[in-house]
């Protein structure tokens, strides 16, 4: 899958002020920084596929967005998840693609472990190269 798509996702997340008001700049691809302060967001591609379609190539990516909050931050979990949903309510502009569209495929449920809260939401991305 194209690094351009992953970069566009990061740029959209970083430009979403309702999200950065909650997690700041702690938005990471694949793994969070060691000893990073909470709250933070980690996103990753869990599956990628390509297939020819109508003279173009259709790219499909399954993504997970995982939120981590301190013991006292559970109320902001849903606000952060909604900020991500709002960030992707319009298609992404990605170099080399006509557009990329993300749709939430599974909403998360807060989980408590090791004195912190986490929640994972799943999205499906579809993009067509140009």
Name the descriptors:
alpha+beta; 130 residues
What can you tell me about this protein's structure?
- The protein has 130 residues and is an alpha+beta fold.
- The chain has one domain (3-129): STM4215-like (2-Layer Sandwich), CATH 3.30.2000.
- The protein contains 3 helices and 6 strands.
- Strands 1, 2, 3, 4, 5 and 6 form a 6-stranded mixed beta sheet that branches.
- Helix 2 (17-23) packs antiparallel against helix 3.
- It is elongated and about 50 Å long.
The unreliable regions are: none
CATH class: Alpha Beta
The name CATH uses for the topology is STM4215-like
Our count of domains comes out at 1
- Quote the distance from N terminus to C terminus: 14 Å
Biggest sheet record: 6 strands, mixed
Q: Give the helix/strand class.
A: alpha+beta
Overall mean pLDDT stands at: 93
* CATH architecture heading: 2-Layer Sandwich
Could you outline the blueprint of secondary structure elements for this entry?
Layout: H1 3-14, H2 17-23, E1 27-29, E2 40-53, E3 56-70, H3 75-87, E4 97-106, E5 111-113, E6 116-129
Parallel strand pairs: 1-2
Antiparallel strand pairs: 2-3, 3-6, 4-6, 5-6
Short note summarizing the structure:
The chain is an alpha+beta fold and 130 residues long.
């Amino acid at each position: 899958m194209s690094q351009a798509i992953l970069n566009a996702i990061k740029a959209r997340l970083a430009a979403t002020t309702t999200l950065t008001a909650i997690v700041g700049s702690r938005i990471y691809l694949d793994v969070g920084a060691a000893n990073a302060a909470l709250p933070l967001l980690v996103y990753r591609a869990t599956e990628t596929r390509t297939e020819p379609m109508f003279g173009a190539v259709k790219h499909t990516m399954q993504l997970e967005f995982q939120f981590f909050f301190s013991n006292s931050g559970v109320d902001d979990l849903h606000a952060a998840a909604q900020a991500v949903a709002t960030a992707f309510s319009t298609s992404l502009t990605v170099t080399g693609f006509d557009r990329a569209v993300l749709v939430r495929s599974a909403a998360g449920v807060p989980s408590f472990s090791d004195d912190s809260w986490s929640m994972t939401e799943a999205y499906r991305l579809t993009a067509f190269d140009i």
